[in-house]
Amino acid sequence: MKTDMSVAWVQYKEHNDIEARDELIIHYAHLVKYVAGRLAINLSSVVEIDELNSCGIEGLIDAIEKFDHKRNIKFETYAITRIRGAIIDGLRAMDWVPVSVRQKSKELEKAYQNLEGRLGRAATDDEVAEELGITQHQYASLLREVAANSIISLDDFLPGDEGDARKKRVLDLLEDHKAADALELMELSEVRELLAKTISRLPDREKTVVYLYYFEDLTLKEIGAVLHLSESRISQLHTKAILRLRGSLSKKKYMVI
């Protein structure tokens, strides 16, 4: 039986009752465990789950502070996005991915971008390996190596170079700002259209993995059970899909990671 938290929301939002805020944090803390656990599955053992939980709690508190309880929006959906964003920010700050892995990921992304730009379609594994001048075995090893660097949500960031103060999350643009910047809204519409078009062009299995992971909230292991494939194979499909998407978006200088 679900607990009605409407009273706590009113007490905190309308009367600034700190005890009510603490009650909300405790009640929704399970969302942090859910998001952190889901991300941890795809991360290296270097990152401790406690670190993810700590970042996630910050995201939860931020979500509670910014949530408008009067709007017809489910808090859990709003909070999960904020929690995930806070954890990803924490991972970035930790700089947990070795520079060598980041470089290899960018090389793969560029290979997909160049190759699929020339072909006008999704490149096969053989074509990507040939583009990189490596064997299929080396290509498979490379995908495994950069897999953990591909967990970032598809829409975490919008236009802006690294360090650009204008860089922000899609969820920030989705908030009800009274004076929205016309150029910013146009960029958001353009990146959504480009992202949707790129996803539609993904090979069927990669498209399915993207849908189940990002829209149905299944873990890679759960997706493997649905598609009757190993978790490592699903991880590979996910990595290739993200590399294709990044390559496509980078043509417009959109940051996805």
Structure description:
This protein has 257 residues and is mainly α. The chain folds into 2 domains: 6-94, Rna Polymerase Sigma Factor, Chain: A (Orthogonal Bundle); 99-250, Butyryl-CoA Dehydrogenase, subunit A, domain 3 (Up-down Bundle). It has 12 helices and no strands. It has helices spanning 6-15, 18-40, 49-66, 75-94, 99-119, 125-132, 136-146, 170-173, 182-200, 204-215, 220-227, 231-250. Helix 2 (18-40) crosses helix 4 (75-94). Mean pLDDT is 79; it is low at 157-180 and 253-257.
Alpha plus pi helix count: 12
Q: Judging from the principal axes of the Cα atoms, what is the shape? A: elongated
CATH class of the largest domain: Mainly Alpha
Which class do the helix and strand fractions yield? mainly alpha
Biggest sheet architecture: none
In which range does the helix fraction lie?
55-70%
H/E series = HHHHHHHHHHHH
Number of domains: 2
Unreliable stretches (pLDDT < 50, length at least 5) are 157-180, 253-257
Compute the CA-based radius of gyration. 20 Å
| Total count of strands | 0
CATH topology of the largest domain: Butyryl-CoA Dehydrogenase, subunit A, domain 3
Share of β-strand residues: under 5%
Mean pLDDT: 79
What is the distance, rounded to the nearest whole angstrom, between the alpha carbons of the first and last residues?
A: 39 Å
Question: What is the CATH architecture assignment of the largest domain?
Answer: Up-down Bundle
